[in-house]
Structures are given as structure tokens and as C-alpha cells.
Amino acid sequence: MKVVIKSSAEEIGNDIADSIQQLIGQKPTANLGVATGSSPLSVYRELARRHSEESLSFARAQAFMLDEYVGLSANHPERYFNVITRDFACHLDFADDAIHGPDGLAKDIEAEARKYDESLANAGGIDLQILGVGSNGHIAFNEPGSEWDSRTRTIALTEQTRHDNARFFDQEITAVPKLALTQGLGTIMEARQLVMIALGENKADAARELVEGRVTEQWPITILQQHPDVVVYLDDAAAAKLSDPDSYRNN
Ligand code: GLP
Question: What is the pTM of this model?
Fold first, then answer.
């Protein structure tokens, strides 16, 4: 696991955009794993810039989402499919049917979860997965206690997560869905390359557990220690609880 500390989200966005551009250069049909939330926004902005100013093209690539709220209406602005379209896909030249996510409005939600896992496998798996982390160490919506070999499934969101995500719902915790569909930890670990972004002091505990802690289901993020190709990007605030942050500054 490589750990990189940068002083701004823009520098992190630039580094990860480099990795994605390299991947697309080698494999134009790449499958990109995309995350919602504020952490990847600088990556998405930089990709949009490279697309409009430098002709970086995603015309043959596909994007797969990590998770989705269950039950938000099709046009709800916080439905993750709409978030990914707005923050990411609409600024790039993906084909119309190239953005995939589990459908939180499916009638048979468990069947939808299985179908999504199958669609990932049928597409040949994820080449590069972008990840954020919740303040409680969740990745995608794999809350503490999630099993290492879990697959795409429904999960009850913790009060902490609903509280954290209330900022996207006018600070109204009751408006945050209680249930989500999420790729499992086992699913995420199958991606060939992972990049994880943690920004801000709210992520400092999770970052410390990831970099210095032992692998434990209480901190789902710690499973990344066992992935063969993962880069962890932290800003100064997220790195503040590491015992020796300076040792990662020149990575
Ligand atoms: C949500 C998403 C996660 C994301 C996390 C952190 O819970 N399901 O995939 O990593 O939020 O979000 P942010 O980057 O906004 O802090």
C-alpha cells in the first residue's frame, strides 16, 4: 500500500487523473469504478478539464458506481445515479449506456444486487476503482461489521452515516434513506487497481486505522491493506493522526 500526502485536493485530483489518463491510454475500453461524495470531485474536475482542453476521451470506456440509496425517486437530486451524472459523466464523452449503477428503485432489490455483481463480472471487472471513506471507516456503504467476502447487497445505514450525509439533504437526517445497495468488500477488492481519497479532519481516525491499524471489520477501510495495488491519498488534515506523516510527503 502506497500512502501519499498532498496539501490540496487539487494536487490529489491531478495525480489520480494522471493514473486514469494512463489507463485509458493503454486500454480505451477500461472499466472505471466511480464514487460519489465530495472526495473525488477534484479528480472529476480535472478529468473534465483534460477532456475539454486536451481531448482526453472516454468514448469507449464504461463507468460503474459503488452504491445507491434505496427508494429515492428517479429524479431526486441525491439519487447517486443523478449525482454521478451531474458531477462526472455529463462533463465527459461516455456513451449514453456506459454509466452503470445498482437500481435503488428495483422491485426485487436482492435480485438487483445479484444482477449488479454479475454485470461487473460480465464486463470483465473494474480496472481502476476510486474510493472515498466514511468517517466511521466505511467504503462504498459497507458499514462496520461488513464481512470481508461480502458481495453487492442491501445494507442498513448507521446513524453516523445518515448524520454525515444529512449535509446533502438540507441537514435533515430523516430525509436520508435508511437503506442502500452497495458493492460488497469482496466485490471492491476484485478491482485491479484502487485509489482511495480521504480529505479533512473528519477522516483522520479512518486514515490512521488504514495506515497504522490492524485489519478489523470494525474499520472496513482496513481491508485495503490486503490489496496488491492501492494508493491512499490524504490531505494534511486527514493525515494529522498518523504517527509520522512527514515520511509520506515525498511519495
Ligand atoms: C458516502 C458514500 C461513500 C463515500 C462517503 C464519503 O457514504 N457512500 O462512497 O466515500 O460518502 O463521502 P465524502 O467524500 O463526501 O466525505
Answer: 0.97
